[in-house]
Design goal:
The chain has about 280 residues and is mainly alpha-helical. Helices cover about 70% and strands about 0% of the residues. The model has no long low-confidence stretch (mean pLDDT about 90). The chain is built from 12 helices and no strands. It has 4 domains: about 90 residues, Helix Hairpins; about 35 residues, no CATH class; about 80 residues, Helix Hairpins (Orthogonal Bundle); about 50 residues, no CATH class. Its EC number is 3.6.1.8. It catalyses: ATP + H2O = AMP + diphosphate + H(+).
């Protein structure tokens, strides 16, 4: 629930307070030993983790948790900026200025003299043209240049495929992708039966890459789809554990046929709840 304007905190004051707290935590003489020992590389995994926790809260519609999760993510930005400031590279204000400048540059129809009277499709084309100018300024001339290596693999696959599609390197529709999936599946089976582990891994990677492309053609976010599949698996397996616990047993005390039956029962309950 949104607080009345008169009760809301001052965002400038709260950001300044957070920056000051981070500086105190990193103080070599009086700060926290753990915070002092960290560097960009050691903090980076936490940054990725916090971004995923934000996405998880949104996916679960846990709106009461979201402010805390966004705060955790903001802390990561402040942490990196503080370390950079200590090294004389940049500070939090530089980060804020960089994104503000980028937003203004990428929205000439809002902050400039371009007309806002354009279709969403045209806006996407204009956006890509602007980003191409930015990449050229960074000497990123290749179509795939600038797609971050640190992205989750499925997300990076989608971004690479989108970039290639913009220059015409793409299947025309999902039917062609499905045909490619059949081809890659056959190659995976062949690798399993006749080739070594390196070739098997390569073919499995090819299949995953094409599956990501199918998601793109179907306008599905593969990361989100897999997160939801993980959640569904967790719910159903927990149902198996709960059912077995009624007579004091655990999964290791059961067998696959029984657990399959309990899985199907949990699946039927979920389907019935959706109708």
């Amino acid at each position: 629930m949104t607080a009345p304007k008169s009760e809301r905190r001052d965002p400038k004051a709260e950001i300044a307070r957070l920056i000051d707290i981070m500086a105190q935590l990193r103080d070599p003489k009086t700060g926290c030993p753990w915070d002092i020992e960290q560097d960009f590389a050691s903090i980076a995994p936490y940054t990725i983790e916090e971004a995923h926790e934000v996405a998880d809260a949104i996916d679960r519609k846990a709106w009461d948790e979201l402010p805390g999760e966004l705060g955790d993510l903001l802390l990561q930005v402040v942490f990196h900026a503080q370390m950079a400031d200590e090294g004389g590279m940049f500070d939090f204000a530089d980060c804020a200025a960089a994104i503000s400048d980028k937003l203004i540059f990428r929205h000439p129809h809002v902050f400039g003299d371009e007309s806002r009277d354009k279709s969403a499709e045209q806006q996407v084309k204009d956006w890509e043209a602007i980003k191409a100018v930015e990449r050229a300024g960074k000497a990123e001339r290749g179509t795939l240049d600038g797609v971050a290596m640190g992205l989750p693999a499925l997300t990076r696959a989608i971004k690479l495929q989108n970039r290639a599609a913009r220059v015409g390197f793409d299947w025309p529709d999902a039917a062609n992708v499905l045909d490619k999936i059949s081809e890659e599946t056959a190659e995976l089976v062949e690798a399993r039966d006749t080739l070594g582990p390196d070739a098997l891994e390569e073919e499995f990677g090819d299949l995953l890459f094409v599956m990501a492309n199918l998601a793109r053609h179907l306008e599905i976010d593969p990361e989100l789809a897999l997160r939801r599949a993980n959640a569904k698996f967790t719910r159903r397996f927990q149902s198996i554990e709960k059912a077995l616990a009624t007579d004091g047993r655990r999964p290791e005390d059961s067998d696959l046929p029984e657990m399959d039956r309990l899985w199907d029962e949990a699946k039927a309950v979920e389907k019935a709840q959706k109708t």
